[in-house]
Design a protein that fits this description.
With about 110 residues, this protein is an alpha/beta fold. The protein contains five helices and four strands. The longest helix has 13 residues.
Length: about 110
C-alpha cells in the first residue's frame, strides 16, 4: 500500500486536492490522478456502484499514485471493512448523528484486535 497523500499533505499544513467520482468507469479515477489531484472520492451513497467496480477504482487510484477515499451509503460496519480490505485509504460515512453515531462510525473503521 502506498502512502496516503491526503494525510501527508494535511500533516504538513498543505492543501490536499480531490474530487468526487460518480461516473462508473475506473478510467475516470486515472484521469483524476493524471490531472494532478491528490485523491479520488468514490461515491457509493449517490450511485449504484457495486463492490467489483469500487475495487477497480481503488486499483486505478493506486496505479496513478492518488489516495482512494470511499463515501459509503451508510454506517454499515461489514461493508466498510470490506472496502478497507480492498485498499481504500479513507472512508466517508454520511449522516452521522450525535455522539452515539460518531462512536459507531469510529468503531466501524477499526479492526477487532486479538
Amino acid at each position: 500500500m502506498q502512502p496516503n497523500r491526503v494525510k501527508k499533505l494535511t500533516r504538513e499544513g498543505k492543501l490536499a486536492r480531490g474530487t468526487y467520482v460518480s461516473l462508473a468507469d475506473p478510467q475516470v479515477v486515472e484521469i483524476i490522478g493524471l490531472a494532478g489531484f491528490d485523491a479520488a472520492f468514490i461515491d457509493m451513497e449517490h450511485t449504484s456502484f457495486e463492490l467489483g467496480l469500487i475495487e477497480r477504482m481503488i486499483t486505478a487510484a493506486e496505479l496513478v499514485g492518488i489516495t482512494p477515499i470511499v463515501r459509503v451509503p451508510d454506517n454499515d460496519e461489514k461493508l466498510i471493512l470490506r472496502i478497507l480490505d480492498m485498499g481504500a485509504q479513507g472512508i466517508i460515512i454520511p449522516h452521522v448523528d450525535g455522539v452515539y453515531g460518531a462512536r459507531q462510525a469510529v468503531a466501524a473503521v477499526r479492526y477487532a484486535c486479538c
